[in-house]
Amino acid sequence: MQHFFMTRARAVAYLLVMRRAMPDGIDNLLVGKADSRLQELDMLKRLLLDVRAGRLREFRLNEPEAVEIVVTD
Q1: Alpha-carbon span 47 to 58, nearest angstrom
Q2: Among 25, 40, 48, 58, which one is least packed by beta carbons within 10 Å?
Q3: Sequential DSSP letters for the chain
Q4: Distance separating alpha carbons of residues 28 and 55, to the nearest angstrom
Q5: Which sequence spans correspond to the domains of the chain?
């Protein structure tokens, strides 16, 4: 697992890139996969809001590769 130290602005930008890389469409997915995709999108949205608000100082993402990010100011 890789560890990164980022400013809050950089961490927000990183999460936005991750969110934009995820396809929005769930129309053609099986029910289980659609539910999983919606959970991932929800998790990224919550992470983004928490990092922006300063409520979260570190987090871990496992997809597409495992990374741990520590927010510095």
Answers
A1: 10
A2: 25
A3: -EEEEEEHHHHHHHHHHHHHHS----TTS-HHHHHHHHHHHHHHHHHHHHHHHT--SEEEE-SSS-EEEEEE-
A4: 36
A5: 2-72
Q: Is the pTM of this model over 0.85?
A: no
Alpha-carbon distances, residue 15 vs 30, 51, 59 (angstroms): 26, 9, 11
Residue-wise pLDDT tens digits, 20-47:
887 766 556 566 677 777 888 899 999 9
Q: Are strands 58-61 and 67-72 parallel, antiparallel or unpaired?
A: antiparallel
Q: For CA atoms 30, 32, 38, 41, give the dihedral sign.
A: negative
CA atoms of 45 and 26, how far apart (whole Å): 17
Q: What are phi and psi of 62, to 5 degrees?
A: -105, -10
